[in-house]
């Protein structure tokens, strides 16, 4: 977190977009919309459904800080500090539980929180969704570890809860991370199929799925509903593929000495211009020591050795997928999965998964080192790992902060309402122009007189008089579930899509009155939100009861 203690912060790749998300949430809350579905301030008031497609429940923290007049720079810094703390605590708890060793938990927290990949996501890329989602990866690992241990006669009653909560954190933060995590969960379950088919394991997995669905229904139902729309959900990268954006083997195993870089094709661009992603020396040590231990150490059970080798293989697969050697372009040409593959955008995203798996490998490694080393030497070795992680993390952070341009922004609206705020065109109705939204921003129509126009967020109220059959054009993108009603008679008039996908309202000849055009969530969106609230309440009550039972049991033992 030290980098956030500077007066400014690095001008990260995605910082303007996430500043706009925070400012959009704050504005949406201010106009009386909760939860915010369509952020009103984007695109000159035309609206933008980023909250439908991009989970932002955690961004309500900086959004509310902005509402209390905290400058967005400091609201964002506070968010980063919170995520860093949550990441450290979750990783410590999860790896401590797996290893049954607090010292190993601390070392794993250092490995996971100070990796090159995470520091770059924080400072260079400002990949808010990605670095937030990765904080919950250890919960998924702990959940799967606990569940798959049930069939071995070990009693783990909370694995389903850890897995469900971990997936909830990822889903609510970053859909692409959800895709990547699901790929590896599928690989693990297929590889462990005989164990998965154990009755208790199936029950635990089903419970975790139900928990995740219940907690995320309020986000998933709108997301799936709007995914049926004529909307550009994916950026257009299928035309050239993404394979060349992967890392070379040199980059993967190198020690970056440059804190800046961007998306450059590995087969065309200079390595000096490419993003300095790498595993880092600490994880290279972990890989080498783990392989060496598998070769020369015999005093461990077959099951423990199998876990370590499986972890190394999974980490190897994740690293392979992060490189330019993985056949991404070939997969992108397969009908049916083309858009999903291209949506990954940058193969080195899989380093985020690789880091989580390698931290799990380190946890297993520490469990074995504890058995074959003296206690003091074991402790000193883990302290050494922590020191290496700290030096590596500080070095990477300093490279970014001293070489990347700085950003000092107090008002998030600077980024919210720009012609090209939606630079990639994601989540816009097809053939929509955000540039035209700045040129054509008035209520207009044919055969109709308009007066007393007032706009409050995604709601426009106006008085009008139609001399003949008329068409009223409203400067709001016509996403589904906009409704136009007469304020007095409650008569409903259909909202259609016109030029540049603006809302068109057809009025009969002779109409005179006051209209309100506003976004209204359908009943099943609201029902899904209720399901999520009830599930969350039940989860809190369940955890409270488990805690009370645990305390009662300990007091009886004493």
Structural class: alpha+beta
Overall number of strands: 11
Unreliable residue stretches:
none
Q: Would you tell me the overall average pLDDT? A: 88
Helix count from the secondary structure assignment: 22
What's the SSE blueprint?
Blueprint: E1 9-10, H1 15-30, H2 50-53, H3 60-67, H4 72-99, H5 102-113, H6 116-123, H7 128-134, H8 137-149, H9 159-171, H10 175-191, H11 193-196, H12 199-226, E2 231-232, H13 249-253, H14 281-296, H15 302-321, H16 328-332, H17 338-343, H18 351-372, H19 375-403, E3 406-407, H20 413-416, E4 428-429, H21 434-439, E5 444-456, E6 459-477, E7 482-486, E8 492-493, E9 495-497, E10 502-507, E11 512-519, H22 523-557
Antiparallel strand pairs: 1-3, 2-4, 5-6, 6-10, 6-11, 7-8, 7-11, 9-10
What does this protein look like?
This protein is α+β, with helices and mostly antiparallel strands. 55% of the residues lie in helices and 11% in strands. The chain has helices spanning 15-30, 50-53, 60-67, 72-99, 102-113, 116-123, 128-134, 137-149, 159-171, 175-191, 193-196, 199-226, 249-253, 281-296, 302-321, 328-332, 338-343, 351-372, 375-403, 413-416, 434-439, 523-557; strands at residues 9-10, 231-232, 406-407, 428-429, 444-456, 459-477, 482-486, 492-493, 495-497, 502-507, 512-519. Strand 9 and strand 10 (502-507) form a beta hairpin. It starts with 8 loop residues before the first strand and ends with a helix. The relative contact order is 0.14.
């Amino acid at each position: 977190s030290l980098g956030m203690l500077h007066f400014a912060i690095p001008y990260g790749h995605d910082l303007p977009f996430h500043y706009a998300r925070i400012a959009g949430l704050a504005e949406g809350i201010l106009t009386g919309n909760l939860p915010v579905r369509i952020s009103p301030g984007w695109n000159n008031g035309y609206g933008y459904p980023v909250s439908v497609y991009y989970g932002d429940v955690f961004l309500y923290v900086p959004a509310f800080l902005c509402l209390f007049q905290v400058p967005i720079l400091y609201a964002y810094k506070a968010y980063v500090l919170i995520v860093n703390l949550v990441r450290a605590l979750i990783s410590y708890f999860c790896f401590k539980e797996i290893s049954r060793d607090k010292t190993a938990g601390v070392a794993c927290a250092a490995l996971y929180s100070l990796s090159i990949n995470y520091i770059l996501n924080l400072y260079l890329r400002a990949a808010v969704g990605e670095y937030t989602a990765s904080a919950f990866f250890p919960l998924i690992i702990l959940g799967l570890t606990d569940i798959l241990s049930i069939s071995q006669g070990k009693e783990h009653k909370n694995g389903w809860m850890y897995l469900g909560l971990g997936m909830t954190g990822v889903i609510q933060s970053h859909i692409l991370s959800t895709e990547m995590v699901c790929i590896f969960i599928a690989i693990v379950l297929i590889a462990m199929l005989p164990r998965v088919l154990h009755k208790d394991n199936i029950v635990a997995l089903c419970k975790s799925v139900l928990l995740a669905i219940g907690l995320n229904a309020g986000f998933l139902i709108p997301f799936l509903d709007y995914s049926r729309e004529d909307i550009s959900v994916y950026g257009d990268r299928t035309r050239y593929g993404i394979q060349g954006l992967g890392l070379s083997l040199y980059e993967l195993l190198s020690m970056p000495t440059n804190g800046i870089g961007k998306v450059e094709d590995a087969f065309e661009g200079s390595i000096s211009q490419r993003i300095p992603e790498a595993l880092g020396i600490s994880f290279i040590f972990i890989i080498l020591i783990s392989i060496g231990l598998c070769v020369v150490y015999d005093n461990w059970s077959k099951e423990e050795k199998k876990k370590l080798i499986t972890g190394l293989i999974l980490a190897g697969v994740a690293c392979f997928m992060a490189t330019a050697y993985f056949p991404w372009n070939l997969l992108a040409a397969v009908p049916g999965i083309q858009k999903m593959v291209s949506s990954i955008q940058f193969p080195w995203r899989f380093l985020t998964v690789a880091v989580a798996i390698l931290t799990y490998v380190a946890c297993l490694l520490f469990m074995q080192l504890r058995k074959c080393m003296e206690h003091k030497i074991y402790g000193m070795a883990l302290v050494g790992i922590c020191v290496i992680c700290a030096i590596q993390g500080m070095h990477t952070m300093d490279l970014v902060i001293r070489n990347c341009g700085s950003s000092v922004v107090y008002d998030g609206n600077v980024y919210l309402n720009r012609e090209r705020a939606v630079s990639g065109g994601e989540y816009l109705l097809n053939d929509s122009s955000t540039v035209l939204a700045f040129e054509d921003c008035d209520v207009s129509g044919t055969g109709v007189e308009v007066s007393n126009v007032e706009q409050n967020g995604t709601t426009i109220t106006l008085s009008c008089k139609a001399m003949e059959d008329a068409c009223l054009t409203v400067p709001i993108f016509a996403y589904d579930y906009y409704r136009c009603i007469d304020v007095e008679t409650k008569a409903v008039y259909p909202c259609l899509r016109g030029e540049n996908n603006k809302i068109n309202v057809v009025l009969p000849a002779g109409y005179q009155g006051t209209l309100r055009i506003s976004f209204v969530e359908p009943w099943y969106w609201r029902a899904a939100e209720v399901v999520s609230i009830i599930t969350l309440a039940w989860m809190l009550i369940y955890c409270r009861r488990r805690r009370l039972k645990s305390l009662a049991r300990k007091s009886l033992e004493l």
